[in-house]
Structures are given as structure tokens and as C-alpha cells.
Amino acid sequence: MRQQKMARQIQKDLGDIFLRHGRDYFGNSMVTITEIEVTPDLAIASVHLSVFPNENIDQFFEKLEAKKSDVRRRLGNQMSKRARIIPDLNFFHDETTEHASQMDKLIDDLNIPPADDSEK
Fold first, then answer.
1. pLDDT per residue as tens digits for the range 10-59
2. Is residue 25 situated within a structural domain?
3. Which strand ranges, in their side-by-side order, compose the sheet holding 30-38?
4. What's the number of domains the chain is made of?
């Protein structure tokens, strides 16, 4: 219960931070926080991000990793009145959207002939 409450609060606060300072962290990429998992001791938060466009995804996460301490500091400033512990942040790429797009494309590209009514 505590973990879920903390995860929701982190998602809300990180969303605010990314909205205000996103260009500093991401450039022109559009980022969505898809999920946050917090360890039972509330010391580590795994932040799953969906990124568009997804070219140069490795560079994106390297840049974000380099600015992780700044993101955590801003998070601490926002959460200081509500949380005793500000968790360490680990960022992960959530590829769910990309997989869904690939599946849609594969389905759209299928060449399925219409059913022959005479075989009934």
C-alpha cells in the first residue's frame, strides 16, 4: 500500500518536473511515464518511460542518466513535505507502444483473401 501510494506520488511529481523542464532532459522527444515500481523500503524507484520518436534511444537514456541527480533533486524539493525518503531513480525504456505499433503494422500488411461463399 505504501509502495503504491509512493509510486503514484512520484509519477505525479515527475510528470510535473518533466513538463516544466523536459527540454533540458529530453530535447524534442515526447516522454510518457508508463509505470513506476518502488521497492518495499522505498529506497529505489524504477521509472518506465515511453519515448517518441524512438530513434537514438540509447543516447536519450545516457543523457537522462547524466541528469538523474538533477531530476532527483527536483523530485526531493517537490516531495519534501510528503515523504521522508526520496528514492533513487532508475530509468527504463518501456517498449510496449513500439511493440503494439509493430503488431498493428504486421496485421495491416497481411494479405487475407476474402472468404469464398461457394464452399459452404
1. 999 999 999 999 888 888 888 899 999 999 999 999 999 988 877 788 88
2. yes
3. 30-38, 44-52, 88-93
4. 1
